[in-house]
Amino acid sequence: MSKLATDTGILLETGTNELEILEFYINETIKEGHPPVKNHFGINVAKVMQVIETPNLEPPESAPHPSFMGTIPLRDLILPVLDLSVWLELNMPKTERDIVIVTEFSKSVTGFLVSGVTEIHRVGWGEVIPPSSVISQSTDSIIGLVDKGDHFIQLLDLETILTQFEPDDGIALKRSDREYKVLVADDSATIRTMLQQNLTSANFKPTITNNGSEALKTIMGYKAMAEEAGKDITEYVDIVVSDIEMPLMDGFSLTKNIKQDPVLKKLPVILYSSIITNELRHKGDSVGADMQITKPDLHTIPEVAIKLIEGTHA
């Protein structure tokens, strides 16, 4: 059993638009009698607790999902193990050398069965290629690709996978008395849809972007229009809500650009991630984020946004 430090951080320095990823692979049998093909994937090192040997589980007949293999004890926890190849529709041959990557994020600990791990890479979000530009039929669980020359590393959005196991809580959302304009940045279509629905229900008018780079371009466009019309920036946008981990530009760098701009700095910024550790919270504070929220608490964003906007306007 090997342990991976979770305090290496998404960013090596605040606002440098960098992260560390653990590269792993899933073998796929394309044709019987031929050697399996390696599919390379990556996840944020900060989400990884441990890498352990396969527990050789047999999926129970009453499994809630075909990928569910059962549970295992780890320290004082009982955690579910999911066969990642089932989610990704890969015909993975099971061997005694398979491993389980134990992750901790979104207030849950989960094991993911894969064929093996390779190494840890430091990459810049600017190097992460949006999947739509490379993969014609991309799944929402692939948020980007990193070109390593002889192969691509596909970055996985494990939160999208886990949402299939989480029931809809049906939480009542606070509604604003007046319509506010919000700019949202997130690379996950699932999260974008959820935020758009929640914010619209709370009387917000959302503008949805796919990453920090697109969001910054959009808000700079608002700034130019405001200056040309002699209006305040809040005539075009009242608040920015952004994921932290995104291709091209992460949420920290987006926030840093906004807060360093003399016109845009008055706008409140809410950052969210599946992992808000003390270290990451400090980094969010250092770039000027007004609030930081974990993804399991995304339903609180409309209420938090209303308080921040009305506090700023007051």
Automatic annotation (TrEMBL):
Keywords: Phosphoprotein
Gene Ontology biological process terms from the UniProt entry: chemotaxis; phosphorelay signal transduction system
SMART domains according to UniProt: CheW, REC
The name this protein goes by in its record: CheW domain protein
Pfam families: CheW (PF01584), Response_reg (PF00072)
Ranges of residues in domain CheW-like: 18-167
Residues with 4-aspartylphosphate modification: D243
Taxonomic lineage: Bacteria, Pseudomonadati, Thermodesulfobacteriota, Desulfovibrionia, Desulfovibrionales
Transmembrane segments: none
Residue ranges that the Swiss-Prot or TrEMBL entry lists as coiled coil: none
Domain Response regulatory residue range list: 181-310
Domain of life: Bacteria
UniProt cross-references to PROSITE patterns, sorted A to Z: CHEW, RESPONSE_REGULATORY
